[in-house]
Amino acid sequence: TGGLSDELLKPIWHAFSALDVDKSGKVSKSQLKVLSYNLCTVMNIPHDPISLEEHFKDDDRGPVSNQGYMPYLKRFILEKARDNFDMQEFNKMCWTLSYKKNMSSRSLLISNEDAFKVWCIFNFLCEDAYPLVILAEEIEYLLRKLLEAMGSSWNQDRFAEYKLQLSLQRNNGGLSAWELINLVGMAHFSKGMNRQTVSMGITQVYQELILDVLKQGYVMKKGHKMKIWSERWFILRSNTLSYYLSEDLVDKRGDVVLDQNSSVESLPDREGKKCLFVVRCADRIFELCATDKKRKQEWIQALQTCLQQVRLGLLSPHREARLRRQELRQKHTVEEEELTERMRQLQATNENKQIELEVMRKKLEEAAAIAAMEEERRRQTQTDLQDRYMLDMAREKMEREQMEQQVAQKTSELDQYLQRVGELEDMYKRLQDALDQQRTAKEEEEAMRRRQARLLAEEAGKRVELEQLHLQQQRAMCQVQAEKQELVEERQAQERALQAATLQLQTLEEERQGALEQYQEVTKKLTLAANKTKKWKTRVAEHEGLVRLIQPGHKGPQIMTNWGPASFTDAELELRKKSWQEKKNQGVH
């Protein structure tokens, strides 16, 4: 299985590293053949040297690397490995190949056998990454176990100081197998302990972690056939309860296989025996007797824990605890990486914020400079405005004086305009007289026409007389025609005079309109000047009487023309229109 292969690969890695003398990561083929043969022999696997030759046939003379040996190792050795060999003998073989080239020459307080046990414990507790190292947490776990087994107290402050030094000296914060052996062998954390005590502590931890010994000790056992009570050395592992003749483990007397159907329970005292308990299996029942109640309770509790692990299909408690610690470390590593990444992101964000703050600071400085410039410009603008205001006031005073002069000039022009309007009214009266004369001429012409008609009637009645008087009549007709021609010429002369008067009237009206517009413009300027200064209003008020004297007085309903109020009413205008129309019609007839 994968778990067994990983467990076997760690001792093999030590052996391969020991063969790599120059630390180049390569080993000669002859040494690999020897290593492969020894592995197959210890693990009860048929050795196949031909496969090794075929695997490295392209490199007959040169060294073979670890990367090249690993595929062969997995295919022809690890995948064929079964749980049918002595794991301790396998570890012994790999230890023999590796310890002589790696053990320190300094004197240690532990024996070679104890160093081998520490080496096995290292392989059990180290990480599954190569090169193999044991982390500070697992070192603390091992040292606590050793000191507990030796009956010594744990000094947390001393280990914390050592852990700090270790983290500063090494990036990975761990030790190799040989450094761990030196740490335990130099009694760095077990000063004052003799060799035997240290050896017993190492052995106990080795049995607990490597041999899966959950509990061991002398217990009285009742025989199955003879029913005799005998003292035996019992060893409880993850799924077996083995018993030996003595604690030297030489004469093994039997195994009790624990499965899901097994159970343990306490028994009452009987047959003069106390502290009894029984282990029930599928095929046998084992009655046991502890030396005292405390050990009885310890054995029952250990057996119940072991049976619970078997029912749940779990590994030994120490292996489960190691897996949990590894999972916690992996989780902690992931959390640290996430925290590092988060810190990096926060740092990047902080740097960006610092950059943004620096940019904002520069912008604020620029804004302050711009504000100062704007303030200076505003002050300059205010000064310019004050100067301009003074100039405007002087200019306004000058314009006001000019306006007063213009008003005086316009007043004089208005007087002249009113005089011309009076002249125009006189001319209009003369025109009306001419129109009356024209109307009188038309009436006379009409009377002449009626007289002519009457004469024609008389001529019809008096044709005879007319014929007689034809010559006289012809003379009269000639005279009438001459008179008529004179009347026509007189009427045309009057019409031409009327047209000339009309044109002159239109010219006067246009001049009056221009004068009125000038008057309105002057009035607007007077109003503006009145709003700016009270003095100007007073002067305008003084001139309002003069302006009003120019306007015609109220005569009832009046007609407003482009030149102002007319000099006649609507009724007079209608009469004049009718009279003029009648004269025009008579002239047509």
From TrEMBL:
Coiled-coil intervals: 318-525
Gene3D superfamilies: Pleckstrin-homology domain (PH domain)/Phosphotyrosine-binding domain (PTB)
Originating species: Gadus morhua
Record keyword GTP-binding present: no
Keywords: Coiled coil
InterPro entries: EF-hand-dom_pair, EF-hand_SWAP70_N, PH-like_dom_sf, PH_domain, PH_SWAP70
This protein's name: Adenosine monophosphate deaminase 3
Statement: the UniProt record of this protein carries the keyword Coiled coil: yes
Domain spans labelled PH: 212-308
Signal peptide: none
GO CC, any one term: nucleus
Highest taxon, organism lineage: Eukaryota
GO molecular function: DNA binding
